[in-house]
Design goal:
The structure holds two protein chains of two kinds.
Chain A: H1 2-14, E1 29-38, E2 41-51, E3 56-60, H2 67-75, E4 82-87, E5 90-91, E6 102-105, H3 117-127, H4 132-145, H5 161-173, E7 179-183, H6 191-208, E8 211-216, H7 219-225, E9 228-233, E10 236-241, H8 243-248, H9 253-258, E11 263-272, E12 277-280, E13 288-290, E14 301-306, E15 312-314, E16 324-334, E17 338-345, E18 350-356, E19 371-375, E20 381-384
Parallel strand pairs in A: 3-8, 3-9, 6-7, 7-8
Antiparallel strand pairs in A: 1-2, 1-4, 4-5, 9-10, 11-12, 11-14, 12-13, 14-20, 15-19, 16-17, 16-19, 17-18
Helix pairs in contact in A: 3-4, 3-5, 4-5, 5-6
Chain B: H1 2-13, H2 17-44, E1 59-62, E2 65-68, H3 73-79, H4 85-115, H5 119-130, H6 137-148, H7 153-160, H8 163-170, H9 182-205, H10 210-218, H11 223-234, H12 236-251, H13 255-259, H14 268-278, H15 282-315
Antiparallel strand pairs in B: 1-2
Helix pairs in contact in B: 2-15, 3-15, 4-9, 4-12, 9-12, 10-11, 12-15, 14-15
Chain lengths: 386, 316
C-alpha cells in the first residue's frame, strides 16, 4: 500500500507540464514532452503524462484546449511536432493508425453506413486476416458483451443512438487493443441517456480490462467514468489526479473554477504558522482560518476557494469567531435535491451556499431579502497560490 | 345565394397557381418530347414514297372508311442481321460502354481529389472542369482534329516521342495518326462527357465523412484497402449516375465519331444520319431512332430504379 502511494506520487510529479520524467518512470502509456503545432498555432504544449495499465483516464477541458489533438496523436491521426509516445514499451512515433495496437471510438461513432452491425464489428478482424470461423466467434462474443446479439443484421441507421454507441464500442474492442481511445463518447446522446450509458460503458470497459484514454468537455462525465483526470487548458495540463483530488484539492484557480462551482475569494496571508494559517480578505469581515500549514509567506496574495456545498447557511449567527459572513439573500436557484443561495455580503461580494433539501419545503424558511449567515469549517477550503 | 356557388364552381374548375408550377414541366415534355416522338413513331410505320413529305400516310380516309396501315417492314429490316443495323447498335453500345469506363477512370480520381481540396479550391476546380463546356461543343471537337492529326504540333510530338509507333504496335491505330481511328472517338467522348461524370461523382464524394476513413485506418485498413471497402461502395450512387449520364448520350453520339472517328467507326448515330440525309429514307430512319430510344430506355429505367431504391433506403 505504502509503495503504491509512493508510485502514485511519483507519477503525479511526472504528470503535467513540467520537467522531463525521471528515466524509468513506470507507465503503460507514456507521453513524453509531446508538442503539436499547426501552422504556428500551438495546440499541445510540451506535455508529459503517464497512464497505468487498466486505467480509464480522462483528458478534460474546454474546446480548443488541445485534448482532442493529444488523443489524435495517440491514435496516429496527427503526428507530434516534438516528443515521444510509448505504449507498453513500444515507441509509437511514425507509426500510421493501421499499425498501432490502438483502437478508437469516434465522436458520433463513424460507423460504416453500408455495413451491418456484425460487418462493422468484423471489419477490423478482417484486416488482420483472421479465419472466418474465428471472426464469427469473436463478433458473437462482442455482440454478447454489448448485448446487441439480436440486432446483428441491422444497418447503423436502423439503430438508436445508444445502440449505435454500443456497436462503436464493440467495433473498437473487437481487436482487443492495448489502448482504447474514446472521443467525446457521450457527445451524441441526450442528457438522460448519457448518465445511464456512462456507467454501462465503464462496466463494459472494465470487463475487458483494456486501458482507456477518453476525451471529454463534460466534467460530470469525466468524474463519473474516469479513474484519473488530466485537466487541460490552452494546450497544457493543469492538473492530474483522481476525480475527488481534482475536486477537493484543485492545484490552481483554473482547476478550482473549471470543475464544479466555487466561491473564489481573494485574500492575503496574514499569519503563516506551521499548524495554521489565517487570511485577510477585503471581501469578508472576519478572518479566514485554515487548520493546517501551507507553503506560502506572509503578505502573499492568494485565492481562497471554497465550494458552495461546504458552506452552512442559516439565520442564526454561528458561534465560531472566523470563517463566517453575513449577507442578504439575493437569488435562490432551486434544483430540487438542493438549493443554491446567492448571498450578497456587505463588501458587495456574492457568495454561494448550497442547502440540501432533506425535508420537503425546508427551503421555504429562507427567502429573498432575508439576512442570513454563512459559515464553513477550518479545512473546508483550499488556498491557491497560482 | 346562387352567386357564391357559381364562383365556387368557377374557382374549382379554373386551375390554381399550383397547377402552373406542376404543369410547366409536363407541358414541356408534351410539346418537346411526346408530340415529336409520336410523329417519329408514326413515320416509322409508314412506307417510303417519292413525295413531299417522302413517306405514305398511315391513315387512309376513303369516304366513311378509315384504314390504319401499319408498315412493319422498316423494323423487320432493322432486325435482319445481314443489313448491319444490329451490328451498328452493338458497336454503338460497345464504343459507348468503353468510353464510359474510360471517362470513369479519368473522372473518378479527378472528383476524388477535388472533393478533398479545401472548400475554396473545390469551387475553382469544379469551375475549371465545367469551363470548357461554355464554348461550343462543335468547336471543341474540331479542336481535337488539330490536336490529333499527324501534321499538328501534338501529332508531330507524338511521332517524335515514339507514341505513334507504340500505339501502332499495340494495334490501336493503323496509319501514322490517331485522328480517324476508334481511339480518337474514345478520346473525343471522354473529353466531351467528362464534366457529366465528374459532377455527380464530386457531389457524392464531397459528402463523405472523413472520419469513416479514419475509422477504417484505425481498425487496421491500409489506405488503398480503406478506399476499396469504404469510399468506393459509398460512392456507388455517384458512379452509376455518372456512367448513365455519359453512356446514354454517348450511344447516340453522331458528331464525335463523324468528325474524329474513321470510316470504320460504326455508330448508330451515323447510320441514322445516313438514312435521313443520304438515302432520304425517312421511315427507316425513324425506325432506327425508335429502336435506339428503346435501347436507351433500358439503362435509364435501371438508373431510375437504383435512384428510387436509394431514396427509399434513406427513408427507412
Amino acid at each position: 500500500m505504502g509503495t503504491d502511494m509512493a508510485a502514485v506520487e511519483q507519477q503525479q510529479a511526472v504528470a503535467g507540464h513540467g520537467p522531463s520524467p525521471t528515466p524509468g518512470a513506470e507507465g503503460y502509456l507514456r507521453i513524453v514532452e509531446v508538442r503539436k503545432e499547426f501552422d504556428g498555432f500551438l495546440a499541445v504544449d510540451d506535455t508529459n503524462l503517464s497512464i497505468r495499465k487498466g486505467e480509464i483516464f480522462a483528458l478534460l477541458g474546454g474546446s480548443g484546449c488541445g485534448k482532442s489533438t493529444l488523443l489524435r496523436c495517440l491514435g496516429g491521426f496527427e503526428h507530434p511536432t516534438a516528443g515521444k509516445i510509448f505504449l507498453d514499451g513500444q515507441e509509437l512515433n511514425g507509426l500510421p493508425p493501421y499499425e498501432r495496437p490502438i483502437n478508437m471510438m469516434f465522436q458520433s461513432y463513424a460507423l460504416f453506413p453500408h455495413m451491418s452491425v456484425e460487418q462493422n464489428i468484423a471489419f477490423g478482424l478482417k484486416q488482420d486476416r483472421m479465419s472466418k470461423p474465428d471472426i464469427a466467434r469473436r463478433v458473437e462474443e462482442m455482440l454478447a458483451l454489448v448485448q446487441l446479439g439480436r440486432l446483428a443484421r441491422r444497418k447503423p441507421h436502423q439503430l438508436s443512438g445508444g445502440q449505435q454507441q454500443r456497436v462503436a464500442l464493440a467495433r473498437s474492442l473487437a481487436k482487443d487493443p492495448k489502448l482504447l481511445l474514446l472521443d467525446e463518447p457521450m457527445g451524441a446522446l441526450d442528457k438522460k441517456l448519457r448518465t445511464q450509458m456512462q456507467l454501462e460503458l465503464v462496466s463494459i470497459i472494465e470487463k475487458t480490462g483494456v486501458t482507456c484514454v477518453m476525451v471529454t468537455h463534460d466534467q460530470e462525465e469525466a468524474m463519473t467514468m474516469a479513474t484519473r483526470i488530466a485537466l487541460m487548458d490552452a494546450g497544457r495540463i493543469r492538473q492530474v489526479g483522481t476525480p475527488d483530488e481534482i475536486y477537493e484539492q484543485p492545484a490552481n484557480r483554473f482547476a478550482a473554477s473549471f470543475i464544479g462551482s466555487v466561491n473564489m475569494i481573494t485574500a492575503v496571508i496574514d499569519q503563516d504558522e506551521p499548524e495554521f494559517v489565517t487570511l485577510r480578505s477585503p471581501q469578508l469581515d472576519t478572518a479566514i482560518y485554515i487548520g493546517h500549514g501551507i507553503s506560502g509567506f506572509e503578505g502573499q496574495e492568494v485565492s481562497f476557494a471554497v465550494r458552495p456545498e461546504k458552506l452552512g447557511i442559516g439565520k442564526d449567527e454561528p458561534a465560531q469567531p472566523h470563517n463566517k459572513a453575513r449577507g442578504v439573500i439575493e437569488d435562490i436557484a432551486y434544483f430540487g435535491s438542493h438549493s443554491v443561495y446567492h448571498v450578497k455580503l456587505a463588501s458587495g461580494f456574492t457568495i454561494m451556499a448550497n442547502f440540501a433539501n432533506v425535508q420537503r419545503w425546508a427551503s421555504e424558511s429562507m427567502t429573498w431579502g432575508d439576512t442570513v449567515w454563512v459559515w464553513w469549517g477550518d479545512n473546508d477550503g483550499v488556498v491557491l497560490t497560482q | 345565394m346562387s352567386a357564391p356557388t357559381v364562383f365556387g364552381l368557377l374557382r374549382r374548375i379554373t386551375p390554381g397557381p399550383r397547377w402552373g408550377v406542376i404543369g410547366i414541366p409536363y407541358l414541356w415534355m408534351l410539346v418537346f418530347f411526346a408530340i415529336p416522338f409520336l410523329i417519329v413513331l408514326k413515320i416509322s410505320f409508314a412506307r417510303l414514297a417519292i413525295a413531299m413529305p417522302p413517306y405514305t400516310p398511315i391513315l387512309e380516309v376513303d369516304n366513311a372508311e378509315v384504314a390504319l396501315k401499319l408498315n412493319l417492314s422498316n423494323f423487320l429490316q432493322l432486325g435482319a442481321l445481314q443489313n448491319g443495323y444490329i451490328a451498328a447498335y452493338l458497336s454503338s453500345l460497345k464504343i459507348a460502354a468503353i468510353a464510359t469506363l474510360l471517362t470513369l477512370l479519368v473522372g473518378y480520381p479527378m472528383a476524388y481529389v477535388i472533393a478533398r481540396l479545401p472548400p475554396s479550391g473545390r469551387n475553382i476546380a469544379m469551375m475549371l472542369v465545367v469551363l470548357p463546356s461554355w464554348t461550343s461543343f462543335l468547336i471543341r471537337v474540331y479542336a481535337w482534329i488539330g490536336i490529333l492529326k499527324s501534321s499538328g504540333p501534338v501529332g508531330r510530338l507524338l511521332e517524335k516521342t515514339g507514341v505513334i509507333d507504340a500505339l501502332q504496335s499495340l494495334g490501336w491505330i493503323e496509319g501514322r495518326q490517331i485522328l480517324y481511328t476508334p481511339l480518337a472517338t474514345y478520346i473525343g467522348i471522354v473529353y466531351c462527357y467528362l464534366p457529366f461524370m465528374v459532377l455527380p461523382l464530386y457531389t457524392n464524394l464531397v459528402k463523405h465523412d472523413g472520419r469513416l476513413l479514419e475509422a477504417a485506418y484505425d481498425l487496421g485498413a491500409r489506405p488503398w484497402k480503406a478506399f476499396l471497402k469504404i469510399t468506393l461502395p459509398l460512392s456507388r450512387a455517384g458512379i452509376i449516375a455518372g456512367c448513365m449520364l455519359v453512356m446514354i448520350p454517348a450511344v447516340g453520339e453522331f458528331v464525335i465519331p463523324e468528325l474524329l472517328g474513321g470510316p470504320d467507326t460504326l455508330m448508330i448515330g451515323r447510320v441514322l444520319w445516313n438514312e435521313f440525309f443520304a438515302n432520304r429514307d425517312w421511315p427507316l430512319a425513324s425506325a432506327v431512332a425508335i429502336a435506339m430510344l428503346v435501347l436507351l430506355l433500358i439503362p435509364i429505367l435501371v438508373f431510375n430504379r437504383v435512384q428510387q431504391r436509394q431514396i427509399e433506403g434513406r427513408l427507412t
